[in-house]
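Q: What would this chain look like folded?
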Amino acid sequence: MKTADLFDDKIHFFDGALGTEFQRRGLEAKPAPDLWTLEKPEVVTRIHRDYREAGSEVITTNTFGSNRGRLAAHGQENLIEDLNRRAVALARSVAGDEALVAGSVGPLGSILEPFGDIPVEQAIGMFREQVVFLVEEGVDLVLIETMTSLQEALAALRAAREAGAGVVAVTATFEAAPSGVRTAFGETADEVARELVAHGADIVGANCGEGLELMENVGREFPRFENVPLLMQPNAGMPTIENGTISYPGSPEDFARFSRNVIVEGVTLIGGCCGTTPDHVRAAVAAVGGCEQAPG
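A: My prediction, written as structure tokens:
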């Protein structure tokens, strides 16, 4: 399957946050939010359904931290298979044949060599272990997200290909720097995108980060590639804490404005990260749904 089989020339919508949405709905914060897949499947399914009803065309599995690296830190590595398989089933129960399911793959939680302790080949094996379950359960695409280093992103991309993934999207996280936006390891948006495409990524983009304005800057710095869509999934602004409660300042209206701005820059796939809700997706769909992508 190719990217063109999944998306046409119109603007398409992923969903928004899961972790912050759990908290917004009264579930306590967990070191491993993925565990809600087994402990509160009805809540996970309800969130998926709310995003679908808001207009999301891609439902993302609750598997961001369902890899051996992150689960082992909490003594839950024995749940890798159950979490990934069950999460796909929950997402598919909502998506049906009318929406796509993206298998979320997040960072391992440790730094790869030579800067950290994990050998690259070991990292590839850990990513591959997770993606195999996602692919076997029939995800439509694998979404490698919130990558803070190009090295780890490339390891995850290689693992996804080795696991048999048909379509692979990779999004990195950027922060503001004096010379433009950079990953935590100093890599530019241009460098990240070109390397990912050179190594076979079908979709590239950015997620999380410092909010809507920064993500607009990231979008402007990304190069454009023929037949490789650009995906943007920003946070709803920088979080603040009031009376022990975390809140995000970016409103659905702000998210709609962001969506209008980035499609002019050539972004064709839009979703949300931390702090975004079904209302944010609904506002974006109302603002730019049905629009054709900007001419290259």
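The chain has one domain: 3-288.
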